[in-house]
Amino acid sequence: MGEGDNKINENRCLLELLGNRQSLFENILENVNTGIIISKEGIIEWTNSAFNKITGYKYEELIGKDFKKFFLNEDDEKIEKDIFKNLLCNNAWMDGKWSKRKNGEVYLAATKFLAMEDKESESISGLILIDDITSEEYYEDKIETLTFIDPITGSYNKKYILKRLDMELTNAKKNNSSLAAIYIDLDDFHKINNHLGYTIGDKVLKLISKKLDNSVDNKGIVSRFGNDEFLILIPNYDEDENTRIIEDITSNFSTPLIINGYEIHVSMCIGVSTFPSDGTDTESLVRKSNIANKKAKSLGKNNIEFYSQIRTEDEKEEFILENYLRHALIRKEIFLHYQPIINSQTNKLVGVEALLRWKHPMLGMIPPNKFIPISENNGLINPIGEWVLYEACAQNKKWQDDGYEPIFISVNVSVKQLECDDFIDTISKVLDETGLSPRYLELEITENVSGYDTTNGISTLKKLKDMGVGLSIDDFGRGYSSLSQLKKLSVSKIKIDKSFIDDIGNNLDNDILVSSIITMANSLKLKVVAEGVENYRQLGFLKKKNCDMFQGYLFSKPLPPEELVKFMDFY
Ligand code: C2E
Ligand code: MG
Ligand code: MG
Question: Of 1, 173, 256, 497, which one is least surrounded by beta carbons within 10 A?
Answer without folding.
Answer: 1
